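User: I'm writing a short report section on ligand binding and want a predicted complex to refer to. Could you take this sequence and 2-acetamido-2-deoxy-beta-D-glucopyranose and write out the structure as tokens? A short remark afterwards would be nice.
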Amino acid sequence: MRARGPAVILLITCVLGPHVTCQDHTEEEEHDKQPAGPGHHHWSYQDILEWDKDYPECGGKAQSPIDVDTQHTVFDAQLRPIQLSGYNLSTAETLELENNKHTVVLKLPGTMKIIGGLPEIYQAAQLHFHWGSKSNPGSEHMVNGRRFPGEIHVVHYNSEYTSVEKAANHSGGLAVLAAFIEKGPDYNEGYEPLLSHLEAVKDGGQITEIPGFDISRLLPQRLDRYFRYNGSLTTPPCLQTVNWTIFNQTIRLSETQLDLLEDTLHHDHDQLLQENFRDPQKLNGRNVLSSFKAPVLGRKAAGEGEVM
Ligand SMILES: *[C@@H]1O[C@H](CO)[C@@H](O)[C@H](O)[C@H]1NC(C)=O
Ligand SMILES: *[C@@H]1O[C@H](CO)[C@@H](O)[C@H](O)[C@H]1NC(C)=O
Ligand SMILES: *[C@@H]1O[C@H](CO)[C@@H](O)[C@H](O)[C@H]1NC(C)=O
Ligand SMILES: *[C@@H]1O[C@H](CO)[C@@H](O)[C@H](O)[C@H]1NC(C)=O
Ligand SMILES: *[C@@H]1O[C@H](CO)[C@@H](O)[C@H](O)[C@H]1NC(C)=O
Ligand SMILES: [Zn+2]
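Assistant: Sure. The structure tokens for the complex follow:
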């Protein structure tokens, strides 16, 4: 940790990182060996317990992720199915894919929207992943104490704001769709348009352009069964402005596909980028709502099983 004098000028500029990443350029940073500026992120998953020193909101009372205890979720009949619009992108469109040393981020056009299942319209900004390693699962959210191999986050912002950065500073400004990634017996074709380009961004800081595809195929089929709670970005600056949706149905990737996600990307020092997740945070009295009452029976027989 750097020592901070009382007169440090803290100028925060937000860019779109794993969620929204803010970099503070302090006087001391002028003397750092590594120059400040885009691409320089001084937080890491190794100093997770120190995040709140530089980013006080990381020590707040409504942080994410959480461990969803299904015995204590509250059924809410008002929670309509999540309805997506504009998710089937044309291959003529190009999307920027970046390894930002914390995760792999795919930038998304604002024409992709959530038009049902939330109180307002939200437009897409980006999606990214959290994962573990061969020996450790790496989802951020957990369900009944169980961690899944990986998790996708599709970040949206309330369309009443002009940018994701502005929205990120207002309660309910952001809406993230989250789904768990598990290992399944079959190759998941819907993930091919993304996974086939990971190699092109294997080094930290690399960016490539990929053709548009049907982004909805990165999410589960059942968009009507989900958990809902008020939380935060799971990376600094940990802003507590996210309306979370965690789907109950999981996504399944083949073992080869999961290995590719876990073992392709590197961050700075030629080291594998793995285990990029934060542990569950205290609920502090928050409610977790559920859009569904009973587990769907016979899912496994139907080959779609997420009910464990
Ligand atoms: C997505 O768009 C492609 C190309 O326009 C089309 O072939 C495909 O059927 C669409 N998928 C869905 C789910 O609508
Ligand atoms: C918005 O930013 C201001 C100034 O940084 C801060 O005081 C306030 O708590 C933020 N609001 C939210 C909802 O994060
Ligand atoms: C999140 O969405 C729920 C509807 O499910 C709504 O009641 C709640 O006010 C929203 N939270 C915020 C902080 O806007
Ligand atoms: C989330 O916050 C909003 C606004 O403060 C509140 O109306 C809503 O009840 C909260 N949702 C839950 C599930 O507690
Ligand atoms: C889905 O919901 C069922 C019923 O509450 C629960 O047993 C199961 O653990 C949930 N799975 C996920 C991934 O949310
Ligand atoms: Zn995330």
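A remark for your report: The first helix runs from residue 51 to 54. The longest strand covers residues 122-131.
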